[in-house]
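Suppose you are handed a protein chain with no further information: no name, no annotation, nothing but its sequence. What can you learn? This example shows the usual starting point.
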Amino acid sequence: MAAIPAGEKLDIFFLFMYKMGMSEKADHLFNQLNTLGGKNPPLTGAVENIKKDWQSAFQPHGNIRPPVSDSLCESCKPYAANATDHLEKAVKEHQSIHKPKDFTDISSAIAGPLRRAVTLSDFLHYHINESFRGKNLFGQSFDRHGSIPILKREYLARLANGQAVLEIDELNGSTGPADKPNWWTFFIDTDDIPVSGETYMKELALDVRQIEEAERDKLVLEVLIPTEILNRPLFKPTALDAFVPETKFAPELTGYIYGNTKPDEPALQSRPETVGEPVTYRDLPPGTRITVNKYHFRIYQ
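A reasonable first move is to predict its three-dimensional structure. Written in structure tokens, the prediction is:
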């Protein structure tokens, strides 16, 4: 075996020391994450996802990679005061929508419209009128729209044939909170059309509250937005984007360009997913129309 020149030995030594230093920083971060998960058990799954999704020699397809991983380690270095106290905030500050230049835009690789599956109530609360967000509005009246039950009847009538096309002026809200990643799915081929609303929501790994609400309403709505109208970058989701209590997210670690959901039930198919900045409907081009599809919660309803 040929001897390594002295200069190259020195370069290899410094490279080794650099990698060891980065590994040490990651170890400190993981220890802080473990402490955070111990203090807040509902975050345990989210903590484990970050460790699984961390790019390393052992996990080359990890989606949390430099410069994001370096920056997150630096912001939570072990000698920072109250490190675990600000860790949750630091994680969210490193989500794709907050550091778009550090993530790869995959919007050009997605054909067809982006889709969001929502309950009827969430559609009225968030998409139709942003001022409804987070309020218990049932039975209350509003100058412009009347009460939520009246709105429900109005939109159910418009969706009687399974689809409604809405003018942009009818949508005074947005597709999601401004400070959180907006999750989208999309169809790759015609076989992706869901069997029922219940199946669709479970395949997207939506939370129990949404599924139970859709079951009461006996339907699920699907909001479609063409990617060319969206005109915003889209990213493969990372565990940072899904850092929430009781998360159902599982990192996609096979090198796919987009994410894939991991449903709880083996018989259900996974669905492609991407994240991006939420859309305020009034910011879309004038004359835009938004398609809303209705799926029965169960096929016999």
